[in-house]
Amino acid sequence: MRKPMIFLLSIIMIASLLLSACGSSGSSGSGGKSDEKVLNVFNWSEYLPESVIQKFEEETGIKVNYTTFSSNEEMYAKLSGGNLGYDIAVPTLFFIEMLVKEDMLEKINKENIPNLKNLNPDFTGTFADPEDEYTVPYLWGSVVIAVNKEHVKKDVKGYEDLFDPEFKNSLVMPEDNRASVGAMLAIKGYPINSTDEKEIEEAGDLLKELKPNIKAFDGDNPKGLLITGEAKAGIMYSAEAALAKRENPNIEIIFPEEASFLWQDNFVIPKGAPHKENAEKFIDFVLRPEISKEISEAYPYGNPNQEAVKLLSEEIQEEMSIPKDFFERSEYARDVGEATVLYDRIWTEVKQ
């Protein structure tokens, strides 16, 4: 899924400017020698506590330059033009499938990551990387519905209930075409990873029907609109809903009765990473049980680090939990190959 050359050149120019600005919270370094005390991390917004970065810097003397993205598509577009200095990225499994196929990742030296032993084997050997050559699990979760019961009287059980006129201009949706279109596929009873043109078109039409109820597509802070009451409900990632509920007890988390979208994000090292050993050192640091525990306390997504989970309070473990029946009827998003173009077209039309 290569981007047009003009678009790539624009991305390269913009990203190069960002990378030259070396900042601890908003930009990546421009790269350098492999023994340089620098690490350039490319990650989702609100996904790694600043305290973890500070502890790593204090312990190792390695300066972390942290850049964020709000969608897998944004991450992929920047990496597609060749590595612009990033040492670590955190894509979702179905995008890792594409990155591996296109030889855009470095193999990870497992000898540099002894804390791999802390991982639950259920989250390794994934369909995207069966031999665990390129990836290390970070966090995982699902897509759920969150409803502010202070403003909503309707009994919401699934995605289909969100079409009610009560939700006009009051829904927040993920900045994620696969999650949003996937919810519509689920309503129709189609696979979330459908590659059937007719099924995807029908799901797209359904998403367009829902548009009058959609206030915003937000990939950075969807819980914000829900907490303040600007949005009555939303489809969002599981931890975003849990964090919203922490702030506003009126928020109810609903595991939709339809199938849902599961995901797992992994650490990868982009091809040509200038500080590969520093990246491996950071991954090993994050896999320490006490550090991984700190991450889950701040962002209660599912944690594949089984030793860290043992350290978490019952309250946090409850926030992270997903009902077994919901998990079993849901699907992990997969690379849909040529159908990606169709999902992209539908997404563009919906957001116009």
TrEMBL record:
It comes from the Bacteria. CDD domains: PBP2_PotD_PotF_like. It is found in: Periplasm. Its main location: periplasm. GO terms for cellular component: periplasmic space. The keyword RNA-binding does not apply. GO terms for biological process: polyamine transport. Keywords: Periplasm, Signal, Transport. PANTHER family: SPERMIDINE/PUTRESCINE-BINDING PERIPLASMIC PROTEIN (PTHR30222), SPERMIDINE_PUTRESCINE-BINDING PERIPLASMIC PROTEIN (PTHR30222:SF17). Pfam families: SBP_bac_8 (PF13416). This is Spermidine/putrescine ABC transporter substrate-binding protein.
